[in-house]
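This section describes the prediction task in plain terms. A model, or a person checking by hand, is given the sequence of a single protein chain and must write out its three-dimensional structure as a string of C-alpha cells. No templates, partner chains or ligands are provided. The sample shown here is typical of the held-out split.
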Amino acid sequence: MESSRVQKVITVLKSAFDGLKVPVGDPALEALSVKIYGAMGHESRLFHTVEHIFSFLPSDDPIYVLAAVFHDLVYSNVDHGWPRGLEGELAGFAAEPTPSSAIRTKGLPLAAEALSIFGLQEGDPLPSPGTNEVLSALALVQLVGGVLPRDELLAVVVCIEASIPFRTDDTYPIVGKRLKTLGFSAGAISRQLERAVAFANKDVSDFRMKETSAFLNNTWKLLPELNPALRLREQFSVVEYARSLLGMEAFFRFLSPEKIFHSYGSQPEPEILREWKETSGQNLATAIDYLGAKILAIGFLEAVARTTGGDGPVTLFMGDVDIGSERFEYFLPPSPSPSVELGLVGEILCGGRKGSTRFDTNKSPLAYFLALELYSQGLAKYVSLSKDFMNAKLEPLDYLRAWPAALMTTLLEACYRFIPTRQAALRALGTSLGLALAA
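The expected answer:
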C-alpha cells in the first residue's frame, strides 16, 4: 500500500536533507512538509501539484530533489495570491505576488544572493516571465535558509531559475557569470549549470512524450489552471471555453522545440536532444491541428449562441460531460471511423485523449464530424475563419454564411432538435442565412 501524498513529501525531503548531511528533526521536517503539501494542494491546481514533484523522482542528487520540491511552490497566477498557508511568511518579499511588484529581501543576505542569480536586486520589479520562479526561490530562502548551507541553497536556486520555461540556450552562460560573481569556482559552476539544464528539460518532459494523445491530455489539465471559469465543471460558457482554446492554440504556435529543450556542457547528449526536439515538434504540430478542429467546433457553437439569444453554458449546446446523457452529436449523421484523411488527429478526436478531465469529454465527436466534412474543402481555411470570428474580425452572420450551405443546414437542424428553447431563433437564423430548416 502506498504512503499518503503528505507522507511522500516528508520522505522526499528527508532523503534530500540526509543526502546533504543536514540534520532536521522530525517535528521540523513534518511542519515543513505539511506547509508544502498545503500550499500545492490548492483546489485551483490540477497539474502543478505535489504529484508534479514526484515526477522528478527518483534521483540521488539532493539538490535536484529540493529543486523539484520548491520550484513551483509559488504559482500566483493559478493560486490568485500567495500559496495557501504561507501568506504570512512570504508576503514580506513583495506587496503582491504579481509582475512589476517591487522585490524585497526582508534583510536576508541569502535572499539578496538568490535574487542575483536571476539578475535582480532589491527594489527591482518582479519579472514576467519569472515571477513565480523568483518568489519560489525566495520561499526556499525563507523556509530552509537557516538549515541549508549557503552554497547548496544557491545551487537549488540555480535549478529554480532554469525552470523559467521557453527561453534560449544563452541563458546558461549568463547565469554562469552571476555565479562567478558569487565566488563559485569554474568547476562548481559547470556542475551547477549541467544539473540545472537537466532539471529544466525534465520540467517540460511532457512535450517529448512518445504518445501524443497522453501529451494532449496532460496539456488539457493546464486549461482549468489557467482559465478559472473551466473549474466550474459544466457551468462555464461557450465563449469562456472558446477563449481558452484560442489562447492554448496561440501558445502552441508560439512554441518551438528550440524554446522547449536546452543543452549545456555534456547535458544532454546531442542525439538525445535531437530526438527530444523531433518528438516535441511532432507533438506541437499535432496539438495545433487538434486544437484547430476543436476551435472549428466551438467557433460554430459561439456563432449560433450569439445569434440565437446570447452566450450560455456549454452544456446547453453540447450536453453534459457525464456518459449516458443526451448530447448534441447524437443528432448529427454518423461519421466513419477511423479517418485515413485526418490521420493521428482524427484518431484522437474520434477515439479520445488518453485520460480524462472533469470539465470536458476526452472524445470530440463534433470536431471530428466537422473536420471530416470540411477536409476536402480546405480545413485550414475554416479554422482560420473561426479564429478570425473569435478574434472579432468577422461578424457572426458573415462567419456562418462562409460555411457550406448543406453542412450549415445539417448543423442548424441538429441544434433545433437539441435546444428546444431556441427553436424560433434558430429558424430565424436559418432564414437570415437563406436556409430552409426541415426540423
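For orientation: DSSP finds 22 helices and no strands in the chain.
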